[in-house]
Amino acid sequence: MFERVDFYAGDPILGLMVEYANDSNPNKVNLGVGVYYDENNVLPVLECVKTAEQRIADPISARPYLPMEGLPGHRKACQDLLFGKDAQVLQDKRVATIATIGGSGALKVGADFINAWFPQAKCYVSDPTWGNHISIFEGSGIEVGKYPYYDKATGTVKFDELIAFFNTLNKDDVVLLHPCCHNPTGVDLTQAQWDELLQVVQQRELIPFMDIAYQGFGEDMDSDAYAIRKAVDMGLPLFVSNSFSKNLSLYGERVGGLSVVCPTEEEAERVFGQLKFTVRRIYSSPPSHGGRVVDIVMNDEALHKQWVGEVYGMRDRIKAMRLKLKSVLETKVPGRNFDYLTTQNGMFSFTGLTPEQVERLKTEFGIYMVSNSRMCVAGLNGNNIDYVANAMAEVLKD
Ligand code: PMP
Question: Where is the Aminotransferase class I/classII large domain (predicted)?
């Protein structure tokens, strides 16, 4: 009966996690999946989250269904973080926001909404991008194309090609953008480049869809949202998917949000209704636990402040690892440029290693990174960084 069902080879990044778990090498290092581990190689529970969890647990309360759009405090948390607490666009009630099942859920609901209301739209993603962007949009029935982004030769953005490509797109085509900490390259646009790109988006009446999964890991909470706020200032319609997986270290709770910035309050209400209907048809309503944690941490002034400090602590540790790896590699592999390690932002570094070199790191050293050469810098720590640097130097020699 099911013999016609195709074999699923598994997700390349999640598959790496399983391979890593099964590796008996005592020195193994996981630089594959985009997860932040602390200096002791432990997935942290943030202090602000612990406090929120204690409040939720005492007294233990009933668990009714949440509304389709999630908790009001969760939705407000997304809006304040993305657009700024006092943003005019929020006062004007022009943003329809729902709580979602992680950033992935936000992308899925957004893609379904686009397919329903803009059926002619194609979606363009950066080359390269996080692989699941393509799967999610195609899974919603949308044709996906790629726009030029990363220049392997220089390790920078092919900005002129990018602009020229956007100038060929049609009205209502969707462009999926990474406001900060580009996944997988770590290479971001400058603010001046955002200004120029968004002008083209505006002129050609494209639909920007900004996916922000690492807010706070780049420069700071506000600078990382520059592109989002600029698009709003320009009066663009805008989709934003955001994830709290990384910046609240709440991966398994699946917390995120989808916001759609509309020209008027009346349109925002219509869009909000359709987003709720989209949710109703897929999973009816989001789970409550993670939403309550988001609500408590983000809307309590003291906890919010503590949270920002904790995110910046993670950000700074990653930056320190970048610096250290760069300096060790520079001494071990003279003549090769490792500046990319400190110019790239966020959790990831595109190392430029060949697939063969990445494979050697895995089989000979138990060091796991994605075959496109993406390394999760947040998997490095004081105990493994020399081992990783030596291994990288070794495979780069031949
Ligand atoms: N967008 C990007 C760019 C991501 O890197 C990720 C997570 N790897 C997501 C979205 C999805 O986030 P979540 O895990 O919250 O679904």
Answer: 27-391
